[in-house]
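Archive maintenance. Older records in this collection stored only the sequence; we are now back-filling the structure field for every entry so that each record is complete. The fields below show one back-filled record exactly as it appears after the update. Entries are processed alphabetically, and Helix-turn-helix domain-containing protein is next in the queue.

ARCHIVE ENTRY
Title: Helix-turn-helix domain-containing protein
Organism field: Nocardioides endophyticus
Length field: 71
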Amino acid sequence: MLTLQEACAFLRVPEGTLRYWRHLGFGPRSFKIGRHVRYWRTNLVLWAHRTDQPSTGAGMNSGGCRRQHGE
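Back-filled structure field:
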């Protein structure tokens, strides 16, 4: 389980980018423990692998994960 800062370092993206992706419902799956956002390392790897595939022309949502209710 990784913190927001650890996930940013793992993906090599700024914190603001990961927060924005979460706001849009795009990006690796995350969850909250209390007020803190957490990421499973496996979800980061899978998400990065999917977004590394050639573009399907579907725009930003190709390869992205949509948030589930309650996350």
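Update note: Residues 2-52 form one domain. The CA atoms of residues 4 and 38 lie 6 Å apart.
Entry marked complete.
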